[in-house]
Amino acid sequence: MDLRATQRGSSKGETMRPAAQQYVVTRPLYSEESFAQDHEKIYRHRKTMLDHIKQYFTCDAKRAKSTALSLLPVIGWMKAYRLKEWLLGDIVSGVSTGLVAVLQGLAYCLLASLPPWYGLFSAFFPVIIYFFLGTSRHISVGPFPVLCLMIGSAVTRLVPDEGPAFNITGFEGLTRDEQRVLVASSVTFLAGVMQLAMGVLQVGFVVMYLSDTLVSGFTTAAAIHILVSQLKFVLGLEVPGISGPLSLIYTLEIIFNKITSTNVCDVVISIVIMVVVFIVKEINERFKSKLPVPIPIEVVMTVIACGVSYAFDFKTRYGIDVVGYIPKGYEAPVAPNPQIFQETAVEAFPIAIVGFAVAFSVAKVYSIKHDYTIDGNQELIAFGVSNIFGASFRSFAASTALSRSAVQESTGGKTQVAGLLSAVIVMIVTLAIGFLLEPLPKSVLGAVIIVNLKGSLMQFREIPYLWRRDKADCVVWLASCIGAFLLGLDLGLAVGLGVELISVILRTQFPRCSLLANIRGTDIYKDRKDYISIYEPEGVKIFRIPSPIFFANIEFFRNKLVEAVGFNPLQVLRKRNKAVRMIRKLLKKGKLQWTSIGLLNTSCGPINESEDESNMEELDQPTDFKDFPARIDWNAELPANIAVPRVEIHSLVLDFAAVSFLDISGLKGLRALLKELIRVEVEVYIVACDPYILEKLHDCSFFDDEVQSSMFYLTLHDAMLHILEKHPEPIPKKSDYEKVKKSNEHNIQGVFDILLLEICTQYYYTHVGFLQHKAP
């Protein structure tokens, strides 16, 4: 092969224009068979299922060490810990994150319909386990508002605000809050078991089915649910927790019916908190490059609100709802309730998936930013064990909050040492100074939660962008958002996932097939509708399939191909076989005679076409000319009233460059279609086929006397060169040119004819001649 590259420099007037490059390649024309003959492949042994099983259960010292390091990532990064460079940043980050975690633990616990102090447990126990098992160095593990809301939905369904709780063994003798804590911890335990099982089975890839678009729509709807759930605290109303489809609508109805009972003190406190926190957070965002650490305005306002509430006795004087008694220390471990597992399995699975998906997405962002790797399966194991361990101590499902993780990373946190220190801060509050938060109004927590929803609610701005760029993604966003808004978060997630999978299936089942043409003067082939300077050899069609071929789209592929070539090969084949059958009968009766110029009708009257439909299966077989002295020219005039659709092409090229797999149904359908085309005398070529698909075709006995492996070519241009060598384009004759010129030299239309013929002749020699190639 000769490969040469040339570069043309630009003129002085075009000094800013990049130099134009050209390459010239001289090589043989290759089909797949000829390429395989000239270039020997390396044999690679492929492992069988038994080999994989043996390898999975094989254990040696190296693998044992690798497994230990993968199950305990803390060993790996602690070895590389830079004490002098990282410790101070981790301490500052740990203290800052711990203060935020205390506040968010109290606030997000309200979403789960639990007493506030249980949020402190969720900000402590899962963090300890993740320190040892997690692979991300920057996320802050703990309560996540969407998960809290999903747990709250299960809690209020089993233990409603009004009316009796579900008849569950183990509820006897427990207060309503204790029953709710048991439900929340049992759901968390079950979600943790599911996460651990997925991690052990190495199915962390399932989170990839939750696209960014789906998660965006889902979290937007979750933000609306969170906003509505906090209105009762902001307005100081008593609103019972409602779960299930349309719960949001029913909650808003109750709030509007009770709006006249609003506590003005709660409203004023909430407005002041929201305005101040919003302004300072905007300042943090605008001047984040100049501020050493973000101003912890939520913590500051919480401390001020606690002091003011205690000093002026808001609970007694204005009747506002406060956090109340916070017990010191931790409670004894509790076993989950198996009966609750049966009642909440449907809620636990989306909790497990959403919790992991959010945490993994955030962890991936920080891993890319700080150049280290995270393991999805190990993350599942880490969160699974964290939730199982935490649930035993009455915490609820943990993931990561975006704002809390941002604080941990932006304040200088380098490793999970910062997370461990934040857990220490939470522990200090729980064991020693929790009583200071008892006068804190719940409206303050509600206001803080609402302000932090800004980022999620602003995702509505994505709708116009998605509609302009990708309408299918926009539909997924709207479906997941509206589904979660109306049906609840668990069913809404299922709706969004279903619509997303349907959109993928539809895009694969109904791909955009196209006819290609040569860009003149090049070996490049593009959609013929998109370019002007194209060359299409007469009698040749190039059809591109931009998707896998499988059971769901093989019929669509066939219909599109029939539409592209302009005829149905099976119908043409049947018409031809009917015509041959009729011609054979007429020849025997003497009504037709074979002459040197073709068939001649020797009967006086018209010949009626036979309607004999017997042996229909024979009509699908190759046309049989064994009794005829020559083959019938189907594009010529046939005698009497015998009519057969004309086939205007002699070659069809199928571009398989984008075909990634071919299942058995697709294989059978493709083989039947190729046979039909070959039987109507159309030469079929398949180009750029994936080697594994070609190997599968051989293994499945795809080839026979009609469908042969010689139809496969290495590239599209190789096939086109072969076709033009086999079916050369007719060269306009000089005599034809002179004839047209002489007969039309005195009229205007004739001048156009002369110019057209001249252009076509010049075009042929200039731009088509390069295709006339003879393989060595």
From TrEMBL:
Pfam family, one: Sulfate_transp
Biological process according to GO: transmembrane transport
Segments passing through the bilayer: 87-111, 117-134, 180-207, 214-235, 255-279, 291-312, 348-368, 380-397, 417-437, 475-502
Keyword Transmembrane among record annotations: yes
Protein localization: Membrane
Membrane topology (UniProt): Multi-pass membrane protein
Domain STAS, chain residue ranges per copy: 530-723
GO cellular component: membrane
Record keywords: Membrane, Transmembrane, Transmembrane helix
SUPFAM superfamilies: SpoIIaa-like (SSF52091)
Phylogenetic classification of the source organism: Eukaryota, Metazoa, Chordata, Craniata, Vertebrata
Cited InterPro entries: SLC26A/SulP_dom (IPR011547), SLC26A/SulP_fam (IPR001902), STAS_dom (IPR002645), STAS_dom_sf (IPR036513)
Protein name, UniProt field: Chloride anion exchanger isoform X1
Record's keyword annotation contains Transmembrane helix: yes
